[in-house]
Amino acid sequence: MFIGIDHGTRAIRISSSNEISFAIDRNDASKISFENLRYYIKKYLNLDVNQIKLAALTYSMGDGITTIKKIKTVKNRGLMDYGGAGKFIGGGTKIFDLFYDSDIPTIVLPGIHRESNIDTRLKVFSHHASPEKIGACYYILKKFNVESFILCDIGANTVSVCIKDGRIIGGLDACVFSPGLYQGPIDLETIRQIDNRIISAGDGFNNGGVMKESFIRLLDREQPDRKDEWITKSLSLLISMEIAAMTVLLPDTDIFLCGELSLNEKVTNEIKELIHGHGNIISTGEIASIGCSFIAKDVYNGEREILGIPVDL
Fold first, then answer.
1. Which CATH architecture describes the domain 2-118+299-312?
2. pLDDT in tens, 261-310
């Protein structure tokens, strides 16, 4: 059996290659022991850890590696630096270290970033997508038998990735374009707060979503009876604009929505109304860890390139 591990924004998700999944809250994961992890895998996946032939693990930004590597050969947990966008809780770090110290054969997936083999024009941005997006993209490729598509992951933040002829050619990361519910790009208001040392840049990103205080105060003042509706409308509009930007790279292709909000009909119906003439729009839910388990299975069986990313074993 094969498993995949998604270091998500709000939880660690673990799936088997027969598409059974469970999630551990990141706070809980920061205190978990290997014996507890073994228990959860047995309870939820009906799998003894000694039955795992290969695990595919994601961690944080993954910007320190460009290939899929054995965990024992990865330095600094695959990061260029431990600072940057995102809130450190410790759950992902704990899970990474448990697998590193265990006898479970494990590979680590890279993120998509400036050193990746992507469209050079997009390398103006240092980072495009964290490693679990590779798992989500691979799920789409395998389950829907498509090699060219746009994937948009919507939830706490928003990230879009473009796949052409079976290769990832670039993306728009959470701190670049559309906000999610909680995290989002740094705008003029936030830049001033950072320059005045009121908040850090990381705080600005972590509170840059459509639930940001300044936007909620505005809605309280201007739309007090329809606040939730306008939060949904704003989020859906900005997500749609990001997807539309990706269609410049890949027009007339299918669009897949994944992540926490991809099954929220209020959000997805708004997106479908806003985007016209760009192929089908398909919602898939939380698929990243399942896709990672598919990667583990295919690498174990000899695949040496995943979505254009070399497998370096």
1. 2-Layer Sandwich (3.30)
2. 999 999 999 999 999 767 799 999 999 999 999 999 999 999 999 999 99
Looking at residue 112, its amino acid is I
pTM: 0.95
Tens digits of per-residue pLDDT, 158-176? 999 999 999 999 999 999 9
Q: Cα separation of 304 and 221, whole Å? A: 56
- Domain ranges for the chain: 2-118+299-312, 154-283
Topology of domain 154-283, per CATH?
A: Nucleotidyltransferase; domain 5 (3.30.420)
